[in-house]
Amino acid sequence: MRVLVREPLNQPLHLKEIEGTFEDLQELVGEFIEIVPITDDIVCICNEKAVSQGLGNNFYDDRLGWVVGTCVFTATNDTEFTSLSDKQIGYVSEYIGFPVV
Prior knowledge:
With 101 residues, the chain is of the alpha+beta class. It has one domain. It has two helices and eight strands, in the order ββαββββββα. Strands 1, 2, 3, 4, 7 and 8 form a six-stranded antiparallel beta sheet that branches.
């Protein structure tokens, strides 16, 4: 599954290929997974406890404020996570304001 991963503190977005298991996501963001909707078909998966764990700011969302810690962006079809399309990758890159590496 094609996802974008962004580490906190002004890092670029990285395109990664992962299996998409719960364990894969925990390995990237940490134990406490939170799903933040970005659009109808794109979500940001992050660590729900990132603030209390002292992880750095990742990006600012007008609705939520600061999203903290490592973030994984993936597509969704309401029942499961799926690979991001090229168009979705472009959208996330513009939304976050950082290039894809």
